[in-house]
Structures
1.
Amino acid sequence: MKNSTFVGTLAAATFAAGFAAAGTLDDVKAKGFVQCGVSTGLVGFAAADANGNWDGFDVSICRAVAAATLGDAQAVKFTPTTGKTRFTALASGEVDLLARNTTWTFSRDVDLKFTFVGVNYYDGQGFMVPKELGVASAKDLDGATVCIQTGTTTELNLADFFRVNNISYEPVPIETNAEAQQQYLAGACDVYTTDASGLAATRATFEDPSAHVLLPEIISKEPLGPLVRHGDDQWGDIVRWTLNALVTAEELGVTSANIKEMGAAAGNNPEINRLLGTEGNLGEQLGLSADWAMKAIVAGGNYGEIFARNIGESTPIGLARGLNAQWTDGGLIYSPPFR
Amino acid sequence: MSATTDPKRGGFQLSQLIYDTRYRSMTIQIVALVFFLLGLGWLLNNAAQNLAALDKGLSFGFLGEAAGYDVNQKLVEYHNQMSHGRAALVGVLNTLLVAVLGCILATFLGVIIGVLRLSNNWVVARIMTFYIEMFRNVPVLLWIVLAMAIFIENLPAPKSFRGDDASMWFSETVAVTNQGIFIPRIMGTDYWWLFGVAIVVSVFFWRGINKWASDKQDRSGLRPSTWLIRLVALLLPVLVVYFATTAFTSGHQRDFLVRSTTAVASLDEIKAGKRPDLCFVGGSTSSLNASRVLEKFDIKYRRKKYVTHGGALEGFISGKCSMLSIADADMDQVMADVKENINGDGVLSAVSVDFTTGRALQIDYPALPAKGIPRFEGGTHIRGSLIALTLALALYTAAFIAEIVRAGIMAINKGQSEAAFALGLRPNRTMNLVVLPQALRVIIPPLISNYLNLTKNSSLAIAVGYMDITGTLGGITLNQTGREMESLLILMAIYLAISLTISSIMNWYNESVKLRER
């Protein structure tokens, strides 16, 4: 009896150890692609085109990680996840990383046991109204009918905002972004509120986006970022530093146009040299090749290029950098040094 | 007798439990019961252990915490600082509202359609068959979503009422918009319940007169003409109450407690300043008179509606509304009370008004303010979600009820209607007096289960954003507190209670109409 218990415990321990030892990086290398959880379709952040190719701001993170680990930006398989299924997909190992405009909160980090590797977009809850409503500030929305996705944190933020400002509103609870769009466009609600980036992306799909404005008030903090499971620090480090590499590249002026030239031989900026692997052994420390960051940056350009191409001011979504400018430009995007 | 029995072979043996037919069925039942209890115990234990592992023991404390979210349609006073339990109550009332409206409408439609389906008119009968097959064979969720989509897409938005794109119905009294339908409402005084009493008295008199006429007819064979006296019985109590309450309530002197940036002394100063928000309590003399005063002085104001005077006072103290109507005598006390608790800025001032006439009932019409957010003020707002949900549920359930009604009618022997025709009764009287009363006995039991179905189907309300109990307790509260087990247990208990109540009421009714056998 005692013996069998002992053997059982030993077997369990071995199994657990084996499980932990086969890290995500080895898994990814073995299967030859990165399984990446994205949203079900939010233009600019993650959306599949007619040919089934995924593109977008969050998708670029997945591609950069694939390029860094496997050397091929196309070696990614995407799993569309909804707000409800995303955490289960990551926790169960169905996806290797989740890049799906997910807000970094205490309970998700601690209670749900995920590691947020950084913030790739600083967002906040905003309001969208038709221009003809003639409203310049959310504080003028007294008596408005507001479409709100039910069961989200935005619902509570909304109630707080109107209570603090002593104004009244009529909530119209809806379940999905598509439903909200229908009601908003038909005029059944005067205002639509959700994350400002989501509002901009939704507006971009309208027939006449210029007839709608986002109000200046941002009523909550929603730092969005990629996340991985607790317990595999190596994989967490890879995703974290891939994101940091993209950010650092922008800060140091490394772009997809000049990276070939800069990475060919060591230049006179030691940080660029360390980033691109022409000096030091940072790649080796991560368990990757020396030019891992170079591949990641080549995949889609640096952070600024990814931002401009997918959601920047020249795109239909038209988001300004704002908080998401480099710290050197007064924004919050800041990478720890490559050293 | 005893001579023929088998000789006794020892006592009771354990194997008899299986091989002896006297005990076998009992044994099987007990074993089944044990397995059932074990299974149940295992499930409960499993749930308890898993909850313990997640550090989430069963606790209902969250019901007392502030809910933090708002609900649009509330039949009792509610705001987002009230508890989750209160939000659940709001949801329960919304569920009951849609269930009651839906059941009444479904019964009404179902009976008509069921009768028409048996019509001798080929076209009418086929149209009804088509209706029934359409609604019965498509999931109710699709009907709900379709009803809402039609509502939102086809009706004009409130803003289009400002231009010439849309106009109100029935000479500017009813606004049909895609946010809902705004209808006029009767505003009463504190004594509005007297009108209810008056109507009961009228009915009582009416029946008394009828009985008196029938007695006289039985005795003399002649029925006296009673229409005049019946008319008087119908109108007199209501008129008495109306004039009495008008005389009583119009004598009230109104004072206003106003909160504004600078002190005000008269209504003219209020008129010149920013548009005030009146703390309005529906069905109260003070609010009715207050709105009359403001309208008389042509002051643009907006109503912030509250259900109770306490709620209105709370709204004033927290700054949600800026004008409170108070009886002259209570002014000093209320003023002191407000001063003690007030938060936010603004100056308090008391304004006295010598204007106090008005009727005991007044009709309040919906109207769209000329500028600002396009939102109808005044009247009663029947939300689109309520209309779409009620209509879809009623139309769907009516299809089933129609079939039940048809079955009930067909269960009545044809000889009954032939006999009625032979007596010279017209077809509709035959149906109402002979066939349907007998058919009710067949119709009611399956009707109960359709009422239950409608009530349970109302939990699909979230598809159109109607905040029923599934939307509040089973939706937002569950999501925000993470108390899945507790929320769902309460939710199940509530639906169980509603269903059992409906079926016990209907069973009682069934008892009263079923055939008395002698």
2.
Amino acid sequence: MSEMTYADAARLALQQEMIRDPSVWALGEDLGPEGGVAGQYRGLQQMFGSRRVVDTPISENAIMGAAVGAAICGTRPVAELRFADFALCAADEVINQAAKIRYMFDGQARVPLVARMAIGFRTGIAAQHSQSNEAFWVHVPGLVVVAPATPADNHALLKAAIRCDDPVVYMESKELWQFRGEVDPDAPPAELGRAERLVSGSDVTIVTWSRMRHVCEAAAATLAGEGVRADLFDLRTLWPWDQEAVLGSVRRTGRLLVVHEAVRTGGFGAEIVAEVTEALFAELKAPPMRLAGPRAPTPFSKPLEDLHRVTEPMVVGAAHELVRRG
Amino acid sequence: MGGMVLAVEHALARLRRMHVIRFFEEAAAEAWFAGKVRGSVHQSIGQEAVAVGICEGLRRDDWLASNHRGHGHAIAKGADPRAMMLELYGRRGGTCGGKGGSMHIADFSVGMLGANGVVGDGVTLALGAAHAAVIQGQDRIAAAMFGDGAMNRGPLLEALNWSAAIALPILLVCEDNHYSATTRTADVTAGPGPIARAEAFGLYAESVDGNDLDAVIEASTRVAARVRETRGPVFLHCRTYRWRGHFAPDKGAYRDPEEHARLMANDPIARYAAVLAAAGVEAGAIARVEEEARAEIAAHVADAEAAPWPEEREAFTDVQDLGAPDELARWVVA
């Protein structure tokens, strides 16, 4: 085990996969000398050359289109789109090409690519650089959607995403780039679609992902001190998501709280609540609850941005409320 | 003498292929009007020499990314017209099992990376195919076929810059039929034309009479070799004309009748037949390939009409490995 940042863990995973498989390569803006927006590609171009770590023009359509073309021609590209907000410039290539090609062509080709697009707040970069739009991508048939929350997961999940034969939308959290944690460099790829249970408890099921994992972990500790035992899950993969784990938990607790940074309306929490309610309506002790962002663009000013954040006290309060209701 | 015979056989095969494309397109439109083929059917009648000529310059293992008007490109690249007709009819045994249709015909076994329903998107896919060839150390090249309308799309302009800036083995073929769907391209396009745009990005560019099969073959063979040797891009502008409207029901009433008649008179198939006749190929042989092509397509149509529908489960297969829609399939196909 060694301690490293979330960004370095992803860099290590990509480096290991590029050594293991010569068909793995990366393309995007500022990958070479700059090493990526958070250093997550640092040193890789020097190591693997400019044909396998390609510095591209600021051309999102071409970055994603080239990734699709290269994926259907026998390689495994990792396309860096920087922020999920910018990935919308290449939404056509992700949705109309990457996600549909295998189906449209009756399985003649797979599209094994990773589209990296970071989500979430980060030090006041405001409305066009902060959006968590994971629900858009989950809606698209054909895509896998991954959102790691720890250095260990950013290592093991990125390995898995690169080896996956489906196109993977890989959403790192910008605010976690410098977050440090233990990573086993020899860890095998994580299983995509498998949640991690962080805390076991029988009072309330809390489901979250990405940066909110850490907020919910702190909340679960506080709740434990206040007599409420949370069953806390980090989904890690949003499509497919671990319904088995979540349904199994809610069956025991009868209470569900979903927490995410993204806008609440049409957010992925709505899907989780709907699935759980359809499956377990009679077993619910209280109406499921969502804690998520307001339906507003992210503001710049710090006090205003803070008002968009779901905080630990909010999670604690919501869990108590669920228990009070039944 | 043997070489001469071989050359005549090749020439007749090319003529036959152009006829196959034209009869295919005519049959597709007829089936659409009869309500037997659904969706959009974009015909390439009048542009057959571009498709056949470009593919004459490519190897079978070279990649070709096409566009929405891609039937001719697929046939020229080597896709099976019978399977393509079944695809248009949405039947089992179609090129894509009936799941793609006219705008999504792909045949990876002959390097055909697919027609494409989004104007210009095939070009960025071809960039990726070229990257793949570079990474895998192959000497194959990628080619992209796109129209004059696509020259106004962002992805294509990005691709022109990218292909030259990163130096990729890609042949960019602008098939200029004068129309962006139903709008005259010249009416919505600034600047002196496709060649100037390509040259502005530093690309080597040529223009060729796209209705002269021999000229297209000469140009495509030469520039494809240049791409293969230099591992850099070439832009080839093929001037041609779309006889029909944008898609089957479009009568093209927006066109100037005089210009239309003049351009229709420049038939690439009749021109090539005349070239062969002038070179001494006997009239019977020239007529025979046309009849063979007509009969071939008629047989494909009959096969397509008799072919079974896809199995129900195909509606749900090949979506993805992880999180595939098993639940939905369980409801519909018990």
